[in-house]
Please model this.
Amino acid sequence: MLLYFFVFSFLSQKVFAADIQLFVARDTTTLAVTLESSYAQLIGKNFSHKKLLEIQKKFQETYDPFQIDPKVFCKITKRKLAPSDSNMHLTITYHCKNFENLKNISLNLFQDFPLVKKALVQLVTDENRYLYELNPKRNQFLTPLH
Model:
């Protein structure tokens, strides 16, 4: 399934315009997320090397772009930030114990990065694909069981 996810994300990269693109793959216990954006979209007009390093460190070490219901018991098991001075390519893998409790996921990016006005989320499950357009007022997407 993860191979399908990466092929789907590669083919879909240029189709839709958004400040942030998220590619989410879900199977029985794993949630794999790839987040793509330009650093300028996150930092804004006051772009500096210092701010770039701060954001890279934040995303590489501690930042979680999602708010997931604690009843689902998701834990980040892997995090990788591809090195670049202009575009962010962050991959996060979550291991979750109770996916049956996962109804929706909230995106924290809008409150943490006010310049972000639109995010596209492509969710791939074992059986379907879903596309969600999020914004600061609508920052959640559904996570069907299949």
